[in-house]
Design brief:
Strand 1 and strand 2 form a beta hairpin. Helix 2 crosses helix 5 and helix 7 packs parallel to helix 8. This protein is mainly alpha-helical and about 300 residues long.
């Protein structure tokens, strides 16, 4: 019998406040991924076509009616007076992370999200109009290439993570909705990372279980210091290591260097951290004060880490 933790959560799209035609279009695409009313490839094609159509139409309208161009007090063109293809991309992806907390790890719905991104990446690269050269005419347009530049999604994924995991969020309560959503989110962004669409390691819950002091293993980590409140964070972190492909990815990235770059606060993967995570999961797996589901996930992570280490 399926438990609540195995069921999809509700899709919450709070960032679309204007609720105009563009918002409705983006909402419709996301809902289609959730309810499977369109295939992932159809959603990807529809998103791409929408961005091309809207930005190209805006460009032509501005060329035909240059008096529509609005400028700020310093004489710079406003984004609203440009084709703004990047703005349409951002309009969709600002709420895309909301999808990531809906489905349990490797649920069919989560797989549709991954297949959607893979379908975007499979679309042949093409340029779309974005903005005008400063001081130039509407015919001097700069373009962006879809879908080769994927950096725009990374920051929204971080924002989406912060919207779930924050002090007092409820992740520490076993079986709570915040705990389930955080586990789901981590599983989704780990799989997104594997697609190459966006590297989400700096948002990984594995960072949350690194000891906050010099002593390890330890319950004193970035997000908590008690065994009875760490379970949700262990469950989330384990999503990067209990699944074969995800674990292989993390290990291969960690093998590239011994330590993280201290000058880069987002640097995550290194062999030093790999060893610390092994020690942490072993520590969590043996302590009966930790939620049993988290202990089981920790044991699976340990086994999978050992497995990928011996594959070569």
């Amino acid at each position: 019998m399926a438990t609540e933790q195995d069921q999809p959560a509700a899709l919450v799209l709070t960032l679309y406040e204007d609720d105009d035609a563009d918002d409705q279009f983006c909402k419709g695409l996301m809902k289609a991924l959730v309810d499977d009313s369109q295939t992932p490839s159809q959603v990807a094609a529809n998103l791409d076509a929408w961005i091309v159509k809207e930005s190209s139409s805006r460009l032509q309208k501005i060329i035909d009616q240059p008096d529509l161009i609005a400028k700020d007090e310093d004489g710079h063109m406003l984004r609203t007076s440009m084709p703004n293809a990047s703005g349409y991309v951002e309009r969709f992806f600002q709420s895309f992370p909301s999808l990531c907390s809906v489905f349990p790890p490797h649920h069919d719905g989560q797989t549709r999200i991954i297949q959607f991104l893979e379908a975007l990446l499979a679309i042949p690269s093409h340029d779309v109009p974005d903005c005008f050269v400063e001081g130039g005419s509407p015919k001097d347009v700069k373009k962006i290439t879809l879908w080769s530049d994927r950096g725009y999604s990374t920051e929204y994924i971080r924002i989406g993570a912060d919207a779930i995991r924050y002090p007092g969020s409820g992740i520490e309560t076993p079986g709570s909705e915040p705990e389930i959503r955080w586990r789901n989110y981590q599983s989704a962004i780990a799989r997104i990372t594997l697609t190459g669409f966006s590297e989400c390691g700096f948002t990984s819950a594995l960072r949350d279980i690194l000891p906050s002091g010099k002593k390890d293993p330890s319950f004193s980590v970035r997000v908590t210091s008690k065994p009875d409140t760490i379970g949700g964070h262990v469950l989330a972190a384990a999503q990067w290591l209990i699944w074969p492909d995800e674990a292989r990815y993390v290990y291969q990235q960690c093998k590239k260097k011994e330590k993280v770059d201290k000058k880069n606060p987002r640097d995550t993967w290194c062999m030093e951290n790999w060893g610390i995570w092994k020690a942490q999961f072993q520590f969590f797996a043996l302590d009966e004060k930790i939620d049993p589901r988290a202990r089981q996930a920790a044991k699976k992570a340990i086994d999978r880490m050992a497995e990928v280490e011996t594959e070569e």
